[in-house]
Amino acid sequence: xxxxxxxxxxTMALASLAVATAASLAPAQAQxxxxxxxxxxxxxxxxxxxxxxxxxxxxxxxxxxxxxxxKTLEFIRRDTTGPNPDVARRLAQELIVREKVQVLIGPDFTxxxxxxxxxxxxxxxxxxxxxxxxxxxxxxxxxxxLRTFFSIPQTVRPLAQWxxxxxxxxxxxxxxxxxxxxxxxxxxxxxxSEAGGTITGVVKVPVRxxxxxxxxxxxxxxxxDAAFVFxxxxxxxxxxxxxxxxxxxxxxxxxxLTTGDVPDESTLDAAGDAALGVVSAGHYSPSHDSAANKAxxxxxxxxxxxxPRISMTHATIWDAMQVLYAGLQAQSGQKFDPDRFVAAVxxxxxxxxxxxxxxxxxxxxIVQNAYIRxxxxxxxxxxxxEFDLIKDVSxx
Length: 396
Prior knowledge:
The protein is α/β, with parallel strands linked by helices. The protein folds into two domains: 4-150 and 288-364, Rossmann fold (3-Layer(aba) Sandwich); 153-282 and 371-393, Response regulator (Rossmann fold), CATH 3.40.50. It contains 13 helices and 14 strands. Helix 7 links the parallel strand 6 and strand 7. The two termini are 16 Å apart.
């Protein structure tokens, strides 16, 4: 895909926002107000994500202005409290019916995305999904869904291909036993087997209060060259890494391969030395070497400090704002239209802190690079250091 014309066009559009904003403030012109619902977690297991999202929205508006396409923005926030579909459905209905929002940022978990799909479809409210990784939910569940996060196959497939090319012959799979974990297991098993590898065992771990130490012997007994692990960000990832280290598996030839959730920057300091050497596939690290990312990291840290650390959540919300502004800028001087908004951003390409991304023209999902990284200590801090790249990975 040749992104250059689209990228230049979007860069020029952003550069002209200040001019468009100044013109739109003229007294003779009335601005249209667009209400944006932010439907994500501000409490519960992902409370930090809500704070991060608010910070990124503030930074984006400080950088690019607050009236894209001459439209004033009003952000209305609601707390899903985590993966809670009943709450998400009720709040989405409140935002759409009572608050009359025209665009949503979020929701951030697969059950929530599935729960509100009929609502956004009936009301024709574009929703920029920022935290659900299950395959087959964007486009398929609603034509008004767009995604700036990632899909499980988009991360797992490149890792399985890299493992096979790197001489790994046998892998034991360890996943959290719920939708995304099952998706990860199926994708890795299929991809690795098709590349000539062998799956020596599958270990499924309950998502509620697992006793990880009991699973370590099963991993040892699997006779594998590597363990592929998927756990969601947070307590499960930290619990697995600690148990893996305590069981002495770090001191064996067994390699540890994971999705980017396990050594995510939001929990990497808490994992400590247990995370050293973990090889993962992911789509963003604050150590990513690009001018756009360096500028993003520097401006964010100057505005909000270095703690909590910048993570995938920050890049996801930044790109949701890019999509939002691009869709509104495409309707400059026109009344907001949800169908034209979706049509405008599908097929667009952007320069993200994570590297080049684009929105799939057919279904609104994200196309992006996958990076193979290793956890190393650099400048006194644990970091995911990229050492291999798979370009333009499809979400399907």
